[in-house]
Design brief:
With about 130 residues, the chain is mostly beta strands. It contains no helices and 11 strands. About 0% of the residues lie in helices and about 50% in strands.
């Protein structure tokens, strides 16, 4: 079992920055591929960013490329999302997700069904 707890959400203005953090427990963190998803009002949950087991590879959805940066610290069991130049359309509940991956895998799934473990979510609201 893996437990994930997100933190760092809040209300900001367009152009501001926020840093989300996901704390993991329960299994060796370096065995997990990590992802951030978000779900806006009336929308389906969508992939935002992901990182491979040892951080060798990251992947972002097009709408956040150049603005968001994901990172992980396998010594602290944390997975962060630095969000810069926030836009009102970034408003959503952000979820941390995890799934076990083979030792040398750098594959980053973008489908929610490919992640087994989920946090409770943290609200990000960007005002115009």
């Amino acid at each position: 079992q893996v437990q994930l707890v997100e933190s760092g959400g809040g209300l900001v203005q367009a152009g501001d920055s926020l840093r989300l953090s996901c704390a993991a427990s329960g299994r060796t963190f370096s065995t997990l591929t990590m992802g951030w998803f978000r779900q806006g009002p009336g929308k389906e949950r969508e992939f935002v960013a992901g990182i491979s087991r040892f951080g060798a590879r990251t992947y972002y959805t097009d709408s956040v490329k150049g603005r968001f940066i994901s990172s992980r610290d396998n010594t602290k069991n944390t997975f962060d999302l630095q969000m810069n130049s926030l836009k009102p359309e970034d408003t959503a509940v952000y979820y941390c997700a995890a799934d076990f991956s083979p030792l040398y895998s750098v594959r980053i799934p973008t489908s929610a069904r490919d992640y087994e473990y989920w946090g409770q979510g943290t609200q990000v609201t960007v005002s115009s």
